[in-house]
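Hey, weird one. I pasted the allantoinase sequence into the form twice and got a warning about non-standard characters only the second time. First submission, copied straight from the form history:
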Amino acid sequence: MTDDTTSRFDLVVRGEQTLTTAGIVAREIGIKDGRVVAIEPLGSGLDGAEVVELNADQVMIPGLVDTHVHVNEPGRTEWEGFDSATRAAAAGGVTTLIDMPLNSIPPTVNVDALNAKRAAAAGKTHIDVGFWGGAVPGNKGDLRALHDEGVFGFKCFLLHSGVDEFPHLTADEMEEDMAELAGFDSLMIVHAEDSRAIDHAPTAEGNQYSQFLASRPRGAENVAIAEVIERARWTGARAHVLHLSSSDALPMIASARRDGVKITVETCPHYLTLLAEEVPNGATAFKCCPPIREASNRELLWQGLMDGTIDCIVSDHSPSTVDLKDVVNGDFGVAWGGVASLQLGLSLIWTEARKRGIPLTQVLEWMSAKPAALAGLNNKGRIALGYDADFAIFEPESAQVVDVHKLHHKNPISPYDGRALAGVVTSTWLRGRKIDFQTAQGRMLRRGDV
């Protein structure tokens, strides 16, 4: 490294493998005032106050953008908090996250609650953090004010959310709110499971994973997603299906898009890497809603990613205390439903992608560029001129074994404990500054920030 205060750039990164819009190429990246301002062929001799030389095994990748994270602070900070969540994110190469509006108390359903959440996050964020608003019965009058205060869109449920302070909408209420959001071009993101279908399904009590899986049938997702599609069609609103687990829904999503319905879709690492057939009975760390499904379903989700029906991969990091996962009894009917994986997403997906011959460039499109586009973060998600210098150094040929006690998220429970993974993030940089976990250098983002 050099230290020359008269240098043109604050930071120069040189490497044989740099993931730019041209693919993985040999480049020198010049960074000044937190932005990428030069991209030149390796050997150009860009001069920086600090210079990072990558070795042949390292790839400079854009920082991941995770638009589905439950931080839970304030109110349930014993589950997770901004400090622990953003440490875990940074350790996994995530440089921006968007926090979900529920599981915190109060939920983010009005401007006062948004201000309370921002106050709770102040001085604790190691990466950049934005916020979704919530759409619940009775708060239609708060939606525009939340939008004007910078939330990135609005989340609703079509069944009980798991916490009483964030009640769900009926399909008709969702349509009414969608019509409101269409007026100012906001986005409705939907937990799409149909409560009536689940009411008719078997109960989930006991330690048999097969019983839990039967309690959250694919049909519950399929019916709810059909509602989202039609209500988006009727209102002209933009809609986004969260954490897709049922591959059955892919054809109708593709058909709706051909019809011009404004709908996008995400899935999550647990649906792409885990299998219902391999979940041990009583292993409640694997419980999430909708559930991890069968091997055949998993392969169709990968196909949906490859053909573009599914837009992006995000974590749905939904942690809780170990006690709430009921690990002693292993009762799937009692345990909190959520997978903790914020730090592991890139390695999880890369491990599976490389088996399928899917290149790292495609993985980062799903986990960085596409989520950034979903949230309207036009200066995030790529290593490109004018973009924020948010990046990570990744060693795709290195390996790791997950030790849940060494992860940064607050409670030491994850279904990936002991799992061997390909790929290791060795450092993460936010606006050209290496994240050192000592200083919380993240910013709180508002919709429209550039």
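That's the output from the first submission. The warning seems to come from a hidden character in my clipboard, not from the data itself. The two ends are 30 Å apart (CA to CA).
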